[in-house]
Design goal:
Blueprint lengths: L2 H21 L6 H13 L5 H26 L15 H13 L1 H8 L6 H7 L4 H35 L1 H32 L2
Amino acid sequence: MSGPVLIEHFSYMGLFILLVLGAIGLPFPEGITLIVCGVLIFTHVIKSIPALLIAYSGILIGDLLAYLLGRKYGRMIVTHKRFHRIISPERLLKLEDMFNKKRTLLVMIGGHLVGEIFIVAGVMRMPLSKFLAADAIASIFTIALWTGIGYVGGNSLEVIKKDITRIEHIGILFVIILLSIYLLYRYFKSRKNKTLP
């Protein structure tokens, strides 16, 4: 397996693993992982269609695992030795209250902003078919948003790289101006202090 193919292969695997682990409470934010995905697509490290399909499946599987954890342990998840750090008792009560009012909408809109909502969906015994349908729709928009930001960001980095010399010159000029203002201020302040009786 050649170097570029190996990097591409592990990029896909890494993307999938990070999305699944992030969904079950480990410190790998979904948004950041998808932004990185967008940058990798722009820089041609990975191909867009496979990457987006892998991201989509990673999100759905991760969210499903979070849902199943909540369904298995119920409210006891807040005291479970492995999972109590994912969600506190106070947070669970607050999200349960929100969930009772608008469960499907909350999974669709809030799920990818408030990761614990998938656990709460399981705790509250939301029907699996409704959960999967809501999550499947929401995940499309989540991927489009975050990978889009990454892709545009990758493009911006390329533009910045091309103009880096000009940016450095502007930065140096700005520092010189600030330093000059500061030195002038010190000079006039010291003269004023000398003239005072």
